[in-house]
Amino acid sequence: MSDSSITEPNLRPGLKWNYFKADVLPCWVAEMDYGLAPAITDALHEAIDRGDTGYPYPAIESAVAESGSRFWADRLGWEVGPDRVFHAPDVIEGIRRAISHLTRPGSPVILHTPVYFPFFSMVERAGREMVEVTALRDRDGVYRLDLDGIDRAFEAGAGSLVLCNPWNPVGRSLTRVEVEEVVGIASSHGARVIADEIHAALTFENTEHVAAASADPGTVVTVTAASKAWNLPGLKSAQVVLTNDEDLDVWSAYFTPEKVGVGTLGLIASAAAYSRGGEWLDGVMATLHSNRRLLGELIEERLPGVGYRAPEATYLAWLDMSSFGWDEPADYLLDRARVGVTGGAQFGTGGEGHVRLNFGTQQEVLVEIVDRIARALP
Hints:
There is one protein chain. By secondary structure, the protein is of the alpha/beta class. It has two domains: 3-31 and 279-376, Aspartate Aminotransferase, domain 1 (Alpha-Beta Complex), CATH 3.90.1150.10; 39-276, Type I PLP-dependent aspartate aminotransferase-like (Major domain) (Aspartate Aminotransferase, domain 2). It is 42% helix and 15% strand. The protein has 14 helices and 15 strands. The strands form four sheets. The protein has a seven-stranded mixed sheet, with helices on both faces. A four-stranded antiparallel sheet has the order 11-12-15-14, covered by helices on one side. The longest helix is centred in the last third of the chain and has 25 residues, at 278-302. The model has no long low-confidence stretch (mean pLDDT 96).
């Protein structure tokens, strides 16, 4: 593949390839370059052929709830009834709604930084104060939740924690002990954990995803979607899973159909993904595993001074470039290497000096990305 064909926007759909100028290799926003699963393509074509573009309706909402519940049980070992699955346009909005309707009114929200940066504006839109509790790092570079800091934040009045697991951007998949500890701390304060588990289906082999609600169903609200694993973010369909009976009553009473705001085509695609997209996802995970290994080899060989630890989940690599002393490594790489990454400072305290790199692409593109960075290093 030639350099011009790699960067030609018309050959690449989505925001990822159509945000920067054509000479930039983008590896920033969380979109993969693997197209759609055939089952999803077929379901969407069939929906268009029959003109199924009206308002969402109970049958397709139930199909998502039922297929999602089966998928989570089969793939994640998490048993939850479809009657506990509700709908939202996307995970961020689902979390915002959970904060607004299911946590103590006016209570601050804890974010364990560095963490997915849209959470910051989401907390603001919920009308709440944000409390950043910066993660701890082991000597080997493993990120850990600062449980003592989280406990202190709850003690000071915080009413909820948004738990990002798998953890974007650092690539951790928290162990069962870690999940149980943080959920237990929240429960001891009568607070809530709102678990963003959108990357759960993208957990690599030999790593277990632990659904936070399996630790304490009454404390946790789970928000997830098929969008990251199956390339569906533009179709606006996420799932809010309520394992607390009181939450069920509150949610059902307030979110009548006109307030849900989910897309019909998103529901159709999500149902197809959960019910018939498993084989395609297995193939993608094999590719991502290969890319993850390749990226580690390329960094070791060509990028001295760049810190990298292979992620346990997600297709997002968290690169430590603090040794170069740049104010914002992402700006440097865009200017000098023509590579578009996401700057680490956006992810809150602890993200300074880092960049997030999406390796969910073809291997020749990944190699060219690393080559460009290597040529730009001082």
